[in-house]
# Entry
Amino acid sequence: MPRRFWFAAPVLLALTACALPGAPAAAPLVGSEWRLEDLGGRGVLERVQATLTFPEAGRVAGNSSCNRFVGSYTLMQDRIALGQLGGTRMACAEAVADQETRYLAALQKAQRLEVNGTTMLMHVQGLDKPLRFLRTKP
# Structure
């Protein structure tokens, strides 16, 4: 049986600036849950759920494809920055581990959110296309 333990990886992000005047404000996130539908234009594996939840103000959690993670976030208008994340370290199939690595790396570089109904786009530094999430809980 795989052993689980927590790790801490520095995921230090600074907000590059306060939200620009006139920028749309992100919808309230507290209590919402989201499922990753597209990883910056690369799609996602079928039957492997990567999720993102906002259980309370300033806290984020989810499934990174194989493992669970928790951490902090800061939101100003539509600008988001994730803080330090910790998570389980279970062995995964190679394709799942690859998706997990790409997902966690993208979260570390998150810069801006757009929420439109049941869809959330997370714009990430270095990716041409945003991460696309589908709301699973309001």
Notes: The chain is about 10% helix and 40% strand.
